[in-house]
Design brief:
With 426 residues, this protein is of the alpha/beta class. The chain has 15 helices and 19 strands. The termini are far apart.
């Protein structure tokens, strides 16, 4: 059987994807149909993985298999299709449990993405337990989705938000973090990896410090889960959130991990079918976790697709993925840092595969437009992290973000594209 034929078997992974701890990138790229595209007459160089990664053929095949052979609504149905779909859906939950090393599968809640997961914690935990004068600690690095919900709670309940600053390298200041704790500190929300800068935060140390003071911690893992091995038991976080579309899965699906003891205490975020045990006009009894937080018909196909994406990543090996992406980042950093007029924004000692930069005299949107003419896809703007941009006194950056299927040659294409931008703008 050919490698191409095998890649179309539902749930299959690439042949010899890893050799001696290193990824066979060219073999892996064959599993991603979209990477064969030409843009503006040139091969697509996709460097926008922090916004959304691409989907391999085994995940696509699994989605098609569900839609053509297994589609039905889940739970409570007694017919073949419903039972088959339910089994696949719950199997995906167990795959996620294994992927992040949760203690129990009931600690894994399907959401629409990281944003909904954070909002679920704010409504389910924050609105129930936080009162006027209580304090929530966030960091300057946070994505808007871990800022705005807490501002909504502040405006509703009168809580106070305190913010940990960062240094000129984009690194979290642990001493300043510790100084923010007092008798009114009730919650911490922190990003594991910065989507704007790539900074990897010392979340394990942060969690330990907070827990020593009885303060629960939510970790936004949207940029960490696709690139690093995540062990929620080792981190000891109370909540961990991430999105499927950033780790080779479908859009519209995400995960909230929560310690069972915390989830049991929380109130539901949304009401409706499947999150109840019984309903009358006098009283409703809620379902057990995780179903208490999964009201209505869930994104069944997307959840099953996410399970297939996790299978794919685990077959490659998260350590091998991290090693390859680090090599890409180091190579890109060395190339770009030596270019006159180009400034790298975010130079932390510990980074994930994100390279944000500005070009003197050129707006990032113009940079992105011209790079696109060379077939190079990057993200431009404030990256839903405006406080980060304000910290560096810039309106926006151009951001190249790498995945395990990217190559050194694609980094060279990025560098050539930057040179072309500078040439166009004199």
């Amino acid at each position: 059987m050919t490698a191409q034929a095998r890649s179309r078997i539902p749930g299959a992974v690439p042949e010899t994807p890893v050799s001696s701890g290193k990824l066979n990138v060219e073999r892996i790229r064959a599993d991603f149909p979209i990477l064969k595209l030409n843009v503006a007459g040139r091969p697509l160089v996709y460097l926008d993985n922090a916004a959304s990664s691409q989907m391999p053929q085994p995940v696509i095949d699994r989605l098609v298999r569900y839609q053509t052979e297994q589609h039905a609504n889940i739970h409570r149905g007694v017919h073949y299709l419903s039972e088959t779909a339910t089994a696949a859906y719950e199997e995906s939950r167990r795959k996620i449990q294994h992927f992040i090393n949760a203690r129990e599968d009931r600690e894994v809640i399907f959401t629409s993405g990281t944003t909904e997961a954070v909002n679920l914690v704010m409504h389910g935990f924050g609105r129930k337990f936080l009162t006027a004068g209580d304090e929530v600690i966030l960091t300057t690095l946070e994505h808007h989705s871990n800022i705005v919900p807490w501002q909504m709670l502040r405006d509703e309940k009168g809580i106070k938000i305190r913010v940990v600053p960062i240094n000129d390298a984009g690194e979290f200041l642990i001493d300043e973090y510790e100084k923010l704790f007092n008798e009114r500190t009730r919650f911490v929300g922190v990003m594991h990896v910065s989507n704007a800068l790539g900074t990897v935060n010392p979340v394990k140390a942060m969690i330990a410090y907070a827990h020593a003071r009885g303060v629960p911690v939510l970790v936004d893992g949207a940029q960490a889960a696709p690139h690093l091995k995540v062990d929620v038991q080792d981190l000891d976080c109370d909540f961990y959130a991430f999105s499927g579309h950033k780790l080779c899965g479908p859009t519209g699906i995400g995960i909230l991990y929560g310690k069972a003891v915390q989830l049991e205490r929380m109130q539901p975020f949304k009401g409706g079918g499947d999150m109840i045990l019984s309903v009358s006009f006098e009283k409703t009894a809620y379902n057990a976790i995780p179903y208490k937080f999964e009201a209505g018909t869930p994104p069944i196909a997307a959840a099953i697709g996410l399970g297939a994406a996790v299978d794919y990543l685990l077959a490659l090996g998260m350590d091998a993925i991290a090693t390859h992406e680090h090599e890409l980042l180091e190579y890109a950093t060395a190339q770009v840092s030596g270019m006159p007029g180009v400034r790298i924004v975010g130079t932390a000692r510990h980074k994930s595969a994100v390279l944000s930069f500005t070009i003197a005299g050129v707006h990032p949107h113009d940079v992105g437009t011209l790079l696109n003419q060379d077939g190079v896809a990057v993200r431009t703007g404030h990256h839903c992290a405006q406080p980060v941009m304000q910290r560096f006194s810039i309106p926006a950056t151009s951001r190249a973000s790498f995945a395990f299927y990217n190559t050194m040659g694609e980094v060279d294409a990025l560098v050539a594209g930057i040179r072309n931008v500078q040439k166009v703008f004199g």
